[in-house]
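DM from R.C. (forwarded with permission)

"hey, sorry to bug you on a friday — could you get me a structure for this? deadline for the figure draft is monday and I only need the backbone to look sensible"
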Amino acid sequence: MFRDLATLKEAGVPLFCDPETGNYCVPGTYFLPPTNFTTEEALAVIVLCHELGDQESLPFYEAASAAAIKLENVLPKRLRDYLRRLTDRVHIQLDTTNPLKGKKRTYAHLMRAVGERKMIRISYDSYTDNQVLQTKLAPYSLLFSRRSWYVIGRSSLHQEVRTFNVGRILNLEITSEKFQRIKGFTVEKYLGNAWSIINEKPVSSIEIEFSPLVARNVSDVLWHKTQKIIERRDGSILFQAKVAGFNEIVWWILGYGGHAKVLKPKALQNMVAQEAQKMVTLYGFDTELKTNLEKTSKKTTPKSPKRLSKGSSKSTKG
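My reply, with the result:
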């Protein structure tokens, strides 16, 4: 029992001993007061909690599923049954994510450090530097983007604000040293015009032509906050945006294969062309592909009809 009490205290749960009964109690003020949800509000919360609380959907948010169950249990039976029927038929499918197995403790420490504004020391497996880095970090914010959790903060090693993948943090220690965030810092300002999470310089205007086959798929999605879509008569589209760096967007373009053509800038054209050439070389198609394409072209190209010389005629018996 005492071990359980110690665990609750470490988690920050306030406890007191009732002198009359000798029982340990949690003050009623520790729990959230009742909230009057509308049907739409309750449905939205329950669906999100159930779907994102799945360990495979959003790492470290499995507690959301428990929260949804608690909310369901306090609702009137008629409304509870109605919402359960609906939630069974509403699903949210995110992109494949990094489950971050074995990193739950790291995430919990990061949450605490961010909340208490305490400096941390981390050992970080840097793929870019191909080595383990040691740095002191002022953790400003946690960010979930695309497939994983990241911590954004000022690094003593780099002397600037950097982004670190939680899955690559090998060791973390919370210090007693407090930090102050840079005045006016927001994640939105930090990311700027990045395609995803890498804000590189300079910001460049890009133009990409998408064929009619994929045009609708591209234009239906808000890929970037600066994007503009110009529709063409042949069904193709021109995708325009102002992007900070090309290292992320190049992979998005390559995903559309021969249905995406970079019109500008030249630097982005070159990056896409280089990666495409690497793929051709990887499969050994440098010369073989060219030969096969030429043979295929000759077979499929229709022959032009023979012209008749002047004065000649061709009759058909009827």
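R.C.: lifesaver. The chain has a mean pLDDT of 84.
me: no worries. The longest strand covers residues 131-145.
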